[in-house]
Amino acid sequence: MDLEEYRRRARAWLVENAVEGAEGVAAARRFMAAMYDAGYSGISWPKEWGGQGLTQAEELAFAAEARDFTLPIYAFSIGLGMCGPTIVDLGTDEQRRRWVRPLLRGERIWCQLFSEPGAGSDVASLQTRAEPAEDGWIVNGQKVWTSVAQYADLGLLLARTDVEAPKHRGLTMLVIDMHAPGVTVRPLKDMSGRSNFNEIFFDNVHIPAENLIGQVDDGWSCAVTTLLHERLSISGGVGMSGARDNPASFERLREVVDTGDPIVRDQLVELYVRSRALTLFNQRLAEETRAGVFPGARGSAAKLLLAELTNFGADLAISLAGPEAVAYDDDGGGLARAVSQAPGLSLGGGTNEIMRNIVGDRVLNLPPEPRSDKNVPFKDLKVGTQQ
Ligand SMILES: Cc1cc2nc3c(=O)[nH]c(=O)nc-3n(C[C@H](O)[C@H](O)[C@H](O)COP(=O)(O)OP(=O)(O)OC[C@H]3O[C@@H](n4cnc5c(N)ncnc54)[C@H](O)[C@@H]3O)c2cc1C
Known about the structure:
The chain has about 375 residues and is of the alpha+beta class. It is built from eleven helices and eight strands.
């Protein structure tokens, strides 16, 4: 089938199936299952693990059509954008068989368990312990800011397995059953009024040996893989609704504001140019990735640009709408939600300052940040403080 025909069929399917206002996890699971059955979930993922085995061209064609619709798949954003790609890259064949297809079919929701109260930007300072036990591991500790964990069936966990080693070398990546005894999930309310993330407590949780990803004590290199996927998926909008669903996007603002005012026109042009440039940059990174050229730290540049663009759109919407921008409408959504969620994008997936550090260090080859914590055993560090 040529690309135009693929695109036409994708649009026809979206018109038929992308139900406006479909909310909740049950609706999301149903939608993912329908998307899988129609061949639009995991379009460019490997066929042998449940994907469609098509090219990036089809993936991008579907994404371009989907921008005009509201797809209720937010609960799957972490699994599709970060955990699934990590399993495809680093899992054993048995793990890929066990976890990838159920994710793409909407049967399993995943969350990413990295950040802790004392370990965000400096995630290698994390203190959650995984200790060897009969046939696996026993986990104790706490995570925080975990998106979609209140719905999750499985979590990609980073835990400390060696306190004698320097902090980056004593970590291990494990997959945890979020319904296992000893896992407590407490939703946190953010300023949008929603529970977009959670705090999680682990109390003697058993993880079977077959849930180890990569090698014991090599979790940092696994985490780097996840973080690279995370930045690309955030900037590419994996699992997010399209521009039409964002009241602070160019498409929506153009419809509701006075486009005869030259100052407003000038601001809208800037929003359009920045959105378009980022879309093209993301397409290029996605195409390179599928061609085997991993974009590495340029994914951090894309994530930084998206955070800045989102906040520019929100500030513009506030200046145009005035106080109404923060007045909640009946369903608690709309502009107020877009405006109050925008600042979170400058933090989640790595803060703007950390993205700039990475771009400076690894894209521009500027001198790296000085550090004094590299070769010190973790047990001798004052954790929770930047060293
Ligand atoms: C909406 C949202 C969703 C999230 N979802 C998840 C999730 O699903 N899973 C997960 O594990 N985590 C998640 N997080 C956590 C996120 O990764 C962290 O918030 C982020 O890494 C920052 O860590 P922190 O909040 O501890 O801030 P800190 O690391 O304490 O940073 C505080 C401030 O200091 C600055 N700073 C820190 N170090 C440096 C430095 N070296 N150079 C310059 N400035 C620096 C930061 O930029 C920031 O401004 C989410 C966060 C948000 C907001």
